[in-house]
Every structure is written in C-alpha cells, then in structure tokens.
Write a structure and sequence with these properties.
Mean pLDDT of chain A: 92
Radius of gyration of chain B: 13 Å
Distance between the termini of chain A: 36 Å
Shape of chain A: globular
Shape of chain B: globular
Helix content of chain B: under 10%
Strand content of chain A: over 45%
Number of strands of chain B: 11
Structural class of chain A: mainly beta
Oligomer: heterodimer
Distance between the termini of chain B: 37 Å
Order of helices and strands of chain A: EEEEEEEEEEE
Largest sheet of chain A: 7 strands, mixed
Helix content of chain A: under 10%
Order of helices and strands of chain B: EEEEEEEEEEE
Amino acid sequence: DTEVTQTPKHLVMGMTNKKSLKCEQHMGHRAMYWYKQKAKKPPELMFVYSYEKLSINESVPSRFSPECPNSSLLNLHLHALQPEDSALYLCASSQEVLAGVETQYFGPGTRLLVL
Amino acid sequence: QKEVEQDPGPLSVPEGAIVSLNCTYSNSAFQYFMWYRQYSRKGPELLMYTYSSGNKEDGRFTAQVDKSSKYISLFIRDSQPSDSATYLCASQKVTGRRALTFGSGTRLQVQP
C-alpha cells in the first residue's frame, strides 16, 4: 500500500479564517513533506519533517504552520492567508534511509482557494 | 540557472507513437532520478526511478540517464490517450539534503 491520504479535497477560505489541512500515511515512513503547487508549475517544497521533527522550512511565511502529531499524521495550519496562497497543497512521505534512494509518495492534494 | 531543466511542452502525439520526454540537470551531486506522472488536479504519481547512469524498463516505459551529459529521458512506447498528463522529472542527492528537485514538467497530449 503506497497511499497517502489528504483531507479536505477542496477548501475555500476567507483571509481572516483559520483552517487546517490533514495528511495521513500508514506506510511506516518517517519523513513527511508539504509542497505547494501553482497551476502549470512543479511542486515547491515548503516543509520537511523527519522522525516527527521539523528538519526543513523553506522560508515559508508564518501564516503557514506545520505540525506532526505522530509518525503517521501531518497537519498544515492556515491563518490569515492571502489570495496568492491559492494553490494545490500536496503532502508526501518517504522512508528515511541513510543512503540510497528515498522515493516520495504523494497524496492527491488539497485544492485551496483564498478569497 | 535552474538545477533541473525540462521543456514544458505541450507535446502532442498521435496514439501509438513513441514519446520522448527529456530533462537536463546541472548539479553533479544528483544521483537518483525519478519520473512522476501528474493528471490534471491530482497529486504526482511515481512512475519509476533510476540510479546514476543506465536504463530501466517497466512495461511501456523506459527511463534513461546519461551522467556524462547530465541528461535524463523517459520513453513511452505505444502511447495511449490515458498517458495524457504532465510528466515531472526529479533529482535527488545521495546524502545530505534529500528533498527532490523537480523540473518544470512537460504536458503530454496523446490524440486518439
């Protein structure tokens, strides 16, 4: 099973709202990722969690707040977003290895529209 | 210069054609190369990956890496309308920062 699930599939929010995106995997992967993808662009890395600790933050604005409650779950808390934050938000996971390929498996994404 | 360059297309071919999708990369630290397929409004799906140089075949798909020229290719034989999607190449280092570096994606349309 190489499934990564994400909820909700679609989200519309105002600039003053607070919402959360959720991601779950049951592959035993210890690395989890948040990506942002704008139309006709490749995914852009936002955050990486390794063994439930934040290891990479790609200078993402603080209105995006990641959380990794346990090894299977990853959340992205959203607050005071801007219309330009509208995008497809992708979660991915991979098995941490010291060397060798780390294949990342992506979820279907949450399509976010900020009004 | 982007670390991974990919022609965005779109690429339109008739059904049954052989498709060649290509990327170039500039960072010699990249050792693993992946191809993802992404249908419209869906997440990327891993097709296959290769290590260093050489070929890898999986059904109608063949991935090829030429490290001497820093060139990555994906060939699709007997292309089908269901292959119509955006294809993303991605590169990964062996150690250190393991995050993927993506190309911009090539949009492929296979005409029935």
